[in-house]
Design brief:
The complex is a heterodimer of chains A (913) and B (282). Chain A is of the alpha+beta class and 913 residues long. Chain A has four domains: 157 residues, Roll (Ubiquitin-like (UB roll)); 185 residues, 2-Layer Sandwich (Aldehyde Oxidoreductase, domain 4); 325 residues, Aldehyde Oxidoreductase, domain 4 (2-Layer Sandwich); 136 residues, Aldehyde Oxidoreductase, domain 4 (2-Layer Sandwich), CATH 3.30.365. Chain A is built from 23 helices and 34 strands. In chain A, the strands form eight sheets. Chain A has a seven-stranded mixed sheet with strand order 8-10-6-18-15-16-17, with helices on both faces. In chain A, strands 12-22-21-20-13-34 form a six-stranded mixed sheet. By secondary structure, chain B is α+β, with helices and mostly antiparallel strands. The longest helix of chain B is centred in the last third of the chain and has 24 residues. The chains are: A alpha+beta (913), B alpha+beta (282).
Chain lengths: 913, 282
C-alpha cells in the first residue's frame, strides 16, 4: 500500500504496510538513518522525531498516523549544511559523546525551544525526560540546551598551534553526530543485503536436536538459508583471550544459558522476523540449571564445563605481608559480607553491522570496541588468515565493555562467507539484553584492621564472581579484583582472593571497571566503619591512609603519580560544610527526610593486567601535503578521535585542522589494541606522541632546522620556519613509503611497563593508576526508602587532562552509571529484558556534578596523562552508600539499594534499637 | 495480510468492529512495545482520525473526555481543580513523546494494574462509554476493569469516552506516583484522592484510589467513609490507618516486595491527603 510521508519538507511515497513502524520506514524506505532505533518500545527515546512540531517516538507509531502530517527528523535541523544554534551549542558544550541519543535529544529539545524560548533547567529535564543517554550523565546536554537560548553567539574555537593538548577542543567527529549523518552499526548496510536473525535458546540449560532445515527453507519463501554450527569453516569457538575460545558461535548440541544462539535465519527482513521460534524444527530437552554462585559451588552441582571441576573458572590471589598476624594483633577489626547484582551496559545502540565477502577476504562493518581482536577472532572462526579479514568499524553507539566481545560479527561472517552475499544484522533490545555480557554479580566477605589511631594494618578479602556460562572476561575480573581490593590505601598486610564461578546465567564480561566497582563498595564501607570506630572523620581517615608516591601497593609496586591526597584536599572544604548542612537539616525537621554526605575513594590500573597491551600509531605526510593520523583506536564515544588528534597536532607541531584522521579500519591502521581498561589516552596517547615526534624530527632533519622550528604546509610544499630561516621541502619530489604511500611516516609504539605477577600476586600489573575521591549528598525518604542524590563532588587525578571538557564528560557519565549501580540497576535474568523493567538513570536522576580535575603528572604518560574512563564510575556508589549511612545509620550491604530494600533495612535498624 | 482500517467517522469504525475481529488502535504506546522483533498480525482499527473521539467537553451534568484524548491534551486543557490529580498523573505517564500520543481510552483498555491514569479516574468516579454499531452503554470504571489486562469490553464495542460526573460541592484532587527513577518509570505504588467539601470545609464525599497494589487499582471505601464529615485540616492525613488498606493485595515483583507496597501506599495516602489539607486551609 502506498503512503505519502512529508519528511523535512519533502514528500516521499513509500510502499509499506500502514501498520509498519514509522522509525523503520524513515530509515529503511526513505533512507534517513539519522533517526535511531534503540528499543522499538518507546522506552529510550532515540527515535524521537517531531510530528507537527511535537516530539513523538517514531518506533511505536504506525506510518498511517503520520500520513498528511509534517515530520521533522534530525536531518531537517541544519539548513544547507549549517548547524543551527542548538546543534552548535551541543558541539561547543561536548553534549554528544557516542552520539546515538543525540538525534533524540536534539529533537526533544527542538520541541521545547519552539514553545519555551528560555527554559529553566527543570523545564529542560521535563522535556528531555523521555530520552535516555548512557554516556554523558546529561550535564552537558542540559547546559547545551540552556546555552542555545541564553547565548547570542556560540563560538567554536580551535586551539592554537602547540596548545591542542589540554584544550577543550570540540570533537573532530562531532558534526556528523549532530546532523544525523554519522554511520553507526545499523546505518550503512547496502540495500541488497540479506537480513540475519538469530534463533536463541529459551532454556537456561538444555540439549537440542535440529530437524530438517532444508524442508523448512523450501516451505518458506524469503528465507535464503539457515546457518548452523555445521556452516562454520573454522573453529566454532570464540573468546577474548588468545588461548581460550570456549563460547560457541552457534551451539552444537547443548546450550548453557538462555539466549544462546543455535542457528540463524538469513533472508528478507519480513520473512525472517515473521518466523516464530516454535515453527522451527528444533527438539529441546530442558535440563536443571544453576542460577547462582551458591548453587554452582554446592556439592553435587552439575559441571557446566567439563574441564572446570567445581565450576570454578579460576582464582586470583594477592598476598603481601602477614595478614593473619596483623589481625591477631589488630586493635580494631571490621568485617562484613556484601553482594551485588548483574548490571547491564544498556548502551542505546544495540549491536549491529553488515558484512560482505570480497574474493577470499571478509569485510565487516560493525559497532565494536576492538577492531583487531575482532579481526583475529573472525579469522579463526572462518579458518582464514587474519590479514584476510578486514574490520571497518562503524561509529560505536556506546560500549562500556559490552562491545568488546563479538556479537553480530559472528553471524555476519559465517553467513557472508557461506552465501557470498552482503548480509546485515541488528540485535533488537531483547537480544541485546539477553545475549550479551553483563557486570559480574559478586558475593564478597572482607575484613579490615587498623590501630586506634586509624592506621591501616591488615586486609582480608574473599570474593566470588558469577561469570555466567562462558569465560568472556572472567579471568580479567578475578585478576583485577584482588589487586585493587584494598582500595587506594597503604596497607602493610594483605590477603585478597577472587574466584570466577560458572553458572547457567548470562555471560558476565567486561563492564566499566572489571569488578573494581564491586570491590570499591566493599573497601569503602569498611573504611567508613573503621573511621567511625576510631572517631576520625571519614575524609581524614582516608587522607591519613591514602597511598603516597613511593609507597608500595598490595602487589609491591611503587607508584610515581599518586594523586589521592590532592583529590581529598580539593574535596575537604565542601565535605565539611556539606556534612554540617546535612546535620543541620536533620536536626531541624521531623519529617521522613534525612540527609547525609558520604565519601568514596578508588584507584584503577590503566591497561591490561600484567599483559603486554601495546598500541601502534602511525602519522604520515602525503605528497599532496596531507597529514594523516592512522589510528586503530576505536572511539566509543569517549573521544579518542579527538584527543589523539590533539596529541598528534602538538607532537607534529601543527594546528588540529591539518590532521586528517583515518580510524579503526584494520587494513589502513596499525593495531592500537582495544578501547577498554582506560588505556587509550595513556597507551595510544603515548604511541601518537612518539609517532608525531618521530615524524617531526624527520622533517626537521631534512630541513636541517632546529627543534623549535615551525612546520607549515602549502599544498605539496612543506615550509619549515626556523628563526630567520625558511626551508622549503618539495613533498612531490620525495619517494613514497610503505604502507601508507606517504612521503614522511612516523611510527609510534608504546607498551606499558608491566611485569608478570608471581604466585602471591606480587609484581607491577599496570604502568600507572588513576585515583579519585567523590562525595555524594543524598536525601533519604525514610518512609518510602527512596534516595535522591542531591549533589556529587568528584575529584579525579588524571595525570594530565588532554581535553578537560572530555574528561568532565567521562566523569559525569561514569558518575551517572555509578548512581545507577548504587540505587536502581539490577538485571534479573529472565525478567528485566527491556528498558522499562531494567532502569538506568534518566535526566531527572542525575544531580549537579562538581568536578575537580587533579593533575599529578605520570612520568610514563603522554604529557603526564593517565586514564579516566573507568575511574569515573568506581567511587560513586561507595560515596552514595556512605551518604545513606550518614543519613539513616543503614550500612548498605547489597547493591542496588532499591527503595524496598532500604525501607526494610531502616525498619530492621529500628527493631535493633 | 492483516487489514488496517483508518475510518474518519465513528459510524464506520463501529461498523468495522461489528463485522470481523479488529483491534482498536490509538496511540500505540502499549500495542507496539509488545511486538518487539515481530510485526502486527491483528487486523487494526486505527481510531485516531475520528475527530469526535478527541477532546474534553463540559456536558452540563458531567465532563466528557473523548477516548482518544491524549495526555498532553489533558495537561494543556484548562480544567477545574477537580482534575489536578488527573493532570499530575498525565505528567508522570511516560515521557513527553508518550504523553503526546498515548490516550486516556487506551490507558483504561490496556487495563494494566500500573496504569497511571486509572487511580485518578477512579477517584473522579469516572464512567466509561462503550458503543457498538447498534448500542451504547455507560458503565462505572470500577465495573469496566475486571482484572489484570482484562475489561468487560466486548470485541464489537469501542470505548468512545470517559464521563466524569460533576461533584455537588467544591472539590480538590491529588495524585502521587512512586517509582525507582524520575522519568519513564512504571510505578511501584500510586495514590489519587478527591475530596468534596462544603463552605465549612467539612468533607461531603471522599474518593480514594490506590494503584499498582492489586490486580486492578482499587477504591479504598473504608477510608472514604471515615473521611466523610471530617473537617479538612493539614492533619487530615492522620486519619489513614493500616486497616484501611486491607483491601489491597499487592504482589512481589521486580520493582518491590508486597509488604513494601502496602507500607508505602499508607505513607503516600497520608501525605497526599495532608497536601490537600494544607492547600484547602491555606
Amino acid at each position: 500500500m502506498c503512503i505519502t510521508l512529508n519528511v523535512n519538507g519533502e514528500n516521499y511515497t513509500v510502499n509499506n504496510s500502514p501498520a509498519e513502524r514509522l522509525a523503520f520506514v524513515i530509515r529503511e524506505s526513505i533512507g534517513l538513518t539519522g533517526t535511531k532505533i534503540g528499543c522499538d518500545g518507546g522506552d529510550c527515546g532515540a527515535c524521537t522525531i517531531l510530528l507537527d512540531g511535537k516530539q513523538i517516538c517514531s518506533c511505536i507509531m504506525p506510518i498511517a498516523q503520520a500520513e498528511r502530517r509534517k515530520i521533522t527528523t534530525i536531518e531537517g535541523l541544519a539548513q544547507n549544511g549549517v548547524l543551527n544554534k542548538l546543534q552548535k551549542s551541543f558541539l561547543a558544550c561536548g553534549a554528544a559523546q557516542c552520539g546515538i541519543c543525540t538525534p533524540g535529544m536534539l529533537m526533544a529539545a527542538s520541541d521545547l525551544l519552539e514553545n519555551y524560548p528560555n527554559p529553566t533547567h527543570d523545564e529542560i529535564r521535563d522535556a528531555l525526560g523521555g530520552v535516555l543517554c548512557r554516556c554523558t550523565g546529561y550535564q552537558k546536554i542540559i547546559q547545551a540546551v540552556s546555552d542555545a537560548c541564553k547565548r547570542e553567539n556560540i563560538d567554536i574555537k580551535e586551539p592554537i598551534r602547540g596548545n591542542a593538548v589540554g584544550a577543550n577542543a570540540i570533537k573532530t567527529d562531532g558534526v556528523p553526530k549532530l546532523t544525523g549523518h554519522e554511520i553507526f552499526g545499523d546505518d550503512g548496510a547496502p540495500a541488497s543485503a540479506l537480513w540475519i536473525k538469530a534463533i536463541r535458546s529459551p532454556f537456561w540449560r538444555a540439549t537440542f536436536e535440529i530437524g530438517d532445515l532444508k524442508r523448512f527453507i523450501s516451505e518458506h519463501e524469503g528465507i535464503t538459508d539457515i546457518i548452523t554450527a555445521k556452516d562454520i569453516p573454522g573453529n566454532n569457538g570464540y573468546g577474548i583471550y588468545p588461548d581460550v575460545k570456549d563460547q560457541p558461535a552457534l551451539a552444537q548440541s547443548q546450550v548453557r544459558y538462555r539466549g544462546e544462539p543455535i542457528m540463524a535465519l538469513v533472508g528478507s527482513y519480513h520473512t525472517i522476523n515473521s518466523v516464530r521460534d516454535s515453527d522451527l524444527p528444533v527438539m529441546w530437552n530442558e535440563q536443571a540449571s544453576i542460577k547462582n554462585i551458591d548453587e554452582a559451588l554446592a556439592d553435587g552441582a552439575h559441571i557446566i564445563h567439563e574441564d572446570k571441576r567445581g565450576n570454578i573458572l579460576a582464582t586470583g590471589y594477592v598476598e603481601k605481608g602477614d595478614s593473619d598476624a596483623a589481625f591477631l594483633s589488630s586493635e580494631i577489626t571490621v568485617e562484613k559480607d556484601f553482594t551485588t547484582s548483574f548490571v547491564e551496559h544498556a548502551y542505546i545502540e544495540p549491536e549491529a553491522g553488515w558484512a560482505r565477502r570480497v574474493g577470499n577476504r571478509l569485510e565487516i562493518h560493525a559497532t565494536t570496541q576492538s577492531p583487531y581482536m575482532d579481526r583475529d577472532e573472525i579469522a579463526q572462526l572462518i579458518g582464514i588468515d587474519p590479514e584476510n579479514v578486514r574490520i571497518i568499524p562503524t561509529a560505536c553507539g556506546g560500549g562500556f565493555g559490552g562491545k568488546l566481545d563479538l556479537s553480530v560479527q559472528l553471524f555476519l561472517s559465517i553467513a557472508a562467507w557461506k552465501l557470498q552475499k552482503p548480509v546485515r544484522m541488528a540485535y533488537n533490545r531483547w537480544e541485546s539484553m539477553v545475549a550479551t555480557t553483563k557486570r559480574h554479580p559478586s558475593k564478597i566477605s572482607a575484613r579490615y584492621g587498623c590501630n586506634k589511631k586509624g592506621i591501616l594494618t591488615g586486609f582480608d578479602f574473599n570474593g566470588d564472581f558469577n561469570t555466567g556460562a562462558y569465560v568472556s572476561w572472567g579471568l580479567t575480573v578475578k585478576d583485577r579484583v584482588p589487586i585493587h581490593a584494598t582500595g587506594p590505601y597503604y596497607v602493610p598486610s594483605v590477603k585478597a582472593k577472587a574466584k570466577a564461578v560458572f553458572t547457567n546465567q548470562p555471560v558476565a564480561g567486561a563492564f566499566r571497571g572489571f569488578g573494581v566497582p564491586q570491590s570499591a563498595i566493599v573497601h569503602e564501607a569498611l573504611i567508613d566503619e573503621m573511621a567511625e570506630r576510631t572517631g576520625i572523620d571519614p575524609l581524614e581517615f582516608r587522607m591519613q591512609n591514602a597511598l603516597r608516591s613511593g609507597q608500595k601497593t598490595s602487589t609491591g609496586q611503587e607508584l610515581q603519580s599518586v594523586g589521592l591526597k590532592k583529590c581529598l584536599e580539593s574535596l575537604r572544604p565542601n565535605w565539611r560544610s556539606a556534612r554540617k548542612l546535612a546535620h543541620h537539616f536533620n536536626t531541624n525537621q521531623n519529617g521522613d527526610l534525612r540527609r547525609g554526605v558520604g565519601i568514596g575513594c578508588m584507584w584503577y590500573g590503566c591497561g591490561n593486567t600484567s599483559l603486554s597491551n601495546p598500541s601502534h600509531m602511525r602519522i604520515g605526510i602525503s605528497a599532496e601535503g596531507r597529514i594523516t593520523l592512522y589510528s586503530g583506536a576505536q572511539d566509543i564515544g569517549q573521544g579518542t578521535n579527538t584527543t589523539l588528534v590533539q596529541a598528534a597536532a602538538d607532537a607534529v607541531g601543527v594546528p588540529m585542522r591539518q590532521i586528517q584522521l583515518v580510524w579503526g579500519d584494520t587494513d589502513r591502521t596499525p593495531d592500537a589494541g582495544k578501547s577498554s581498561a582506560s588505556r587509550q589516552a595513556y597507551v595510544s596517547g603515548n604511541a601518537v606522541k612518539i609517532a608525531g615526534e618521530k615524524l617531526r624530527s624527520q622533517v626537521l632533519r631534512l630541513a636541517n632546522a632546529g627543534t623549535d622550528a615551525v612546520i607549515e604546509i602549502d599544498g605539496g610544499v612543506l615550509i619549515v620556519r626556523d628563526n630567520e630561516e625558511t626551508h622549503h621541502i618539495d613533498l612531490t619530489s620525495l619517494p613514497k613509503m610503505k604502507p601508507t604511500g606517504d612521503v614522511f611516516v612516523g611510527e609510534g609504539y608504546f607498551d606499558p611497563p608491566v611485569t608478570q605477577l608471581d604466585n602471591n600476586g606480587q609484581g607491577n600489573p599496570y604502568g600507572t593508576y588513576g585515583f579519585a575521591a567523590q562525595t555524594a549528598m543524598v536525601e533519604v525518604d525514610c518512609a518510602l526508602g527512596t534516595v535522591r542524590v542531591l549533589e556529587i563532588n568528584a575529584a579525579h587525578d588524571v595525570g594530565k587532562a588532554l581535553n578537560p571538557m572530555q574528561v568532565e564528560g567521562q566523569i559525569e557519565g561514569g558518575t551517572a552509571q555509578g548512581i545507577g549501580l548504587a540505587i536502581m540497576e539490577e538485571y534479573i535474568p529472565g525478567n528485566t529484558e527491556n528498558l522499562h523493567d531494567y532502569l538506568i538513570p534518566t535526566i531527572g536522576d542525575i544531580p549537579p556534578i562538581k568536578i575537580h580535575i587533579v593533575e599529578v603528572s605520570e612520568p610514563s604518560g603522554p604529557w603526564g596523562a593517565k586514564g579516566i574512563g573507568e575511574p569515573a564510575l568506581c567511587a560513586t556508589a561507595p560515596a552514595i552508600f556512605g551518604g545513606i549511612y550518614h543519613a539513616t545509620g543503614v550500612r548498605v550491604l547489597h547493591a542496588p539499594c532499591t527503595p524496598d530494600r532500604l525501607r526494610a533495612a531502616i525498619d530492621d535498624l529500628k527493631i535493633k534499637i | 495480510m492483516p487489514q488496517y482500517v483508518v475510518p474518519e467517522n465513528l459510524e464506520i469504525a463501529l461498523e468495522v468492529l461489528s463485522g470481523k475481529n479488529f483491534t482498536p488502535l490509538a496511540g500505540g504506546t502499549d500495542f507496539y512495545p509488545k511486538l518487539v522483533g515481530s510485526f502486527v498480525k491483528d487486523n487494526v482499527l486505527d481510531i485516531t482520525r475520528i475527530i469526535s473521539l478527541r477532546g474534553i467537553s463540559d456536558n452540563g451534568e458531567f465532563w466528557r473526555i473523548g477516548a482518544t484524548t491524549t495526555w498532553s491534551d489533558i495537561i494543556e486543557t484548562r480544567l477545574p481543580s477537580l482534575f489536578n490529580g488527573l493532570k499530575l498523573a498525565a505528567r508522570e505517564l511516560g515521557g513527553r513523546q508518550i504523553q503526546n500520543v498515548a490516550t486516556i481510552g487506551g490507558n483504561i483498555c490496556n487495563a494494566s494494574p500500573a496504569a497511571d491514569g486509572v487511580p485518578p479516574l477512579l477517584a473522579l468516579n469516572a464512567h466509561v462509554e462503550l458503543q457498538t454499531s447498534t448500542e451504547k452503554r455507560i458503565v462505572n470504571l470500577e465495573c469496566f476493569l475486571t482484572g489484570n489486562k482484562k475489561t468487560i469490553r466486548k470485541l464489537d464495542e469501542l470505548v468512545t469516552g470517559i464521563l466524569i460526573p460533576k461533584p455537588k460541592f467544591h472539590s480538590v484532587s491529588n495524585f502521587q506516583k512512586l517509582g525507582s527513577r524520575r522519568y519513564l518509570v512504571i510505578s511501584i505504588a500510586m495514590v489519587s484522592t478527591v475530596l468534596e467539601f462544603n463552605e465549612t470545609n467539612h468533607i461531603s464525599a471522599a474518593r480514594i484510589a490506590v494503584g499498582s497494589c492489586s490486580p486492578i487499582a482499587t477504591r479504598i471505601n473504608k477510608l472514604e467513609w471515615d473521611l466523610k464529615g471530617k473537617k479538612i485540616s493539614p492533619l487530615i492525613g492522620c486519619i489513614v490507618q493500616r486497616h484501611h488498606l486491607d483491601v489491597l493485595n499487592p504482589i512481589n515483583d521486580i520493582r518491590a516486595t508486597s509488604s513494601y507496597r502496602k507500607e508505602v501506599a499508607l505513607t503516600l495516602l497520608r501525605r497526599n491527603l495532608a497536601e490537600l489539607g494544607k492547600k484547602v486551609c491555606a
